[in-house]
């Protein structure tokens, strides 16, 4: 059985203390750092860009799991790779040629991820799964933190897990959106092996992030 990894979303961190927050996450047992990049166009919010990632990279040795919610995404892939992203996750709807964008990520020696919004079908990626390192299933509509988990997306997680096992593929299944102590077990049971969580990790149990990471892994 694959080890469950926790990728805390720094969207819920204290932005005035981001370097310290990332150090805290590493000391608390986080497996990677999830960075949500939003452009105010593909999703209705704005967050951070390559210069911030580049400066944060100095504060941690963890894998930077960078989710690009930007469109058109292809021309920005290299900027994020150079800034220090280890995994670059893009949306099929944000590129004219998904296969070409995945190829570009791989050429830059980074892991390629593809994210599916709640309404996006897995048919968009089934013919490319042997090229993809990670599939990120959104369990909320992307753009804002703190939204309520949508349990119907778990069917997509189960379907991906079945394809992965049947064809002997090696991609990670990550889930992001409203993940908490109540639904983390459902996500893991469905086949997810990486959980992204922001609010739960930073706010629950009086902000005891070590305890919250351990609880998410054990649920």
Features:
219 residues; alpha/beta; eight-stranded parallel sheet; 8 helices
Structural summary, described in words:
The chain has 219 residues and is of the alpha/beta class. The chain is 32% helix and 19% strand. It has eight helices and eight strands. The protein has helices spanning 18-27, 50-56, 77-83, 98-107, 154-167, 184-190, 199-203, 209-218, and strands at 5-8, 32-38, 63-69, 87-90, 111-116, 134-138, 172-176, 194-197. An eight-stranded parallel sheet has the order 1-8-7-6-5-4-3-2. Strand 3 (63-69), helix 3 and strand 4 (87-90) form a beta-alpha-beta unit. Helix 2 (50-56) runs parallel beside helix 3. The two termini are 15 Å apart. The relative contact order is 0.16.
Rounded to an integer, what's the Rg over CA atoms? Answer: 16 Å
List the uncertain runs. none
Main β sheet profile? 8 strands, parallel
Beta strand count: 8
Q: Please estimate the helix content.
A: 25-40%
Order of helices and strands: EHEHEHEHEEHEHEHH
Dominant shape: globular
Structural class: alpha/beta
Beta-strand content estimate? 15-25%
Tally of contiguous helical segments: 8
Strand order of the largest sheet: 1-8-7-6-5-4-3-2
